[in-house]
Amino acid sequence: MSPDALVRQHADLVYRVALRVTGTPDDAADAAQDALVKVWKGIAEIDAERRRAWAARVARNAALDLIRRRKVRPEPGRGEPVLEPACASPLPDDHAEAGDLRAELARAVGTLDDPYRTILLLRDVEGLAYAEIADALDLPLNTLKVYLHRARRRARAALTASAPELVP
User: Fold this and answer.
1) Measuring CA to CA, which residue among 71, 72, 56 is closest to residue 131?
2) Which residues lie below 8 Å from residue 140, measured CB to CB, with a gap of 6+?
3) N or C: which end of the chain has fewer CB within 10 A?
4) Separation CA 151–CA 7 (nearest Å)
5) 67 and 74 in contact (C-beta within 8 Å)?
6) pTM for this entry
7) Please, what are the averages of pLDDT over each run of 10 residues along the chain (168 residues)?
8) Contact 79, 25 (CB under 8 A)
């Protein structure tokens, strides 16, 4: 498969990861563009089973570099929703309730520091496997699992504090 085809295959993931880290579509587009150039240059060298995780790591690093250059921390609620799943298509009846829950979840996740926020989003929103995330973030698998547990616990506590009626 050509590098162009491989980049197209991972372009949506790269943009979504950049959006989740930066918090705004404009910043995400800038970071994704930088990341896709790096992905295009190096994707042929990466093993096929590691490409998805590697592309996510490149996107995350490009987004963090952009934030460092601009010295701006992403803010949930600025731009597109942080927790919008890749293939979201809610039922019309559930749209209002889901919108409230999604907004509160975005606020709760926004209270998390990195790497907790990134790990939670890559696992629970993007659906990456534990091994893929550990590889992408260069973390031992057990450390990743501990961080994910802490991230979920902290997000739940923040959600309980802001909207207890939404927490079962």
Assistant:
1) 56
2) 134
3) C
4) 30
5) yes
6) 0.61
7) 78 90 90 91 82 89 86 50 50 58 83 89 87 87 96 92 81
8) yes
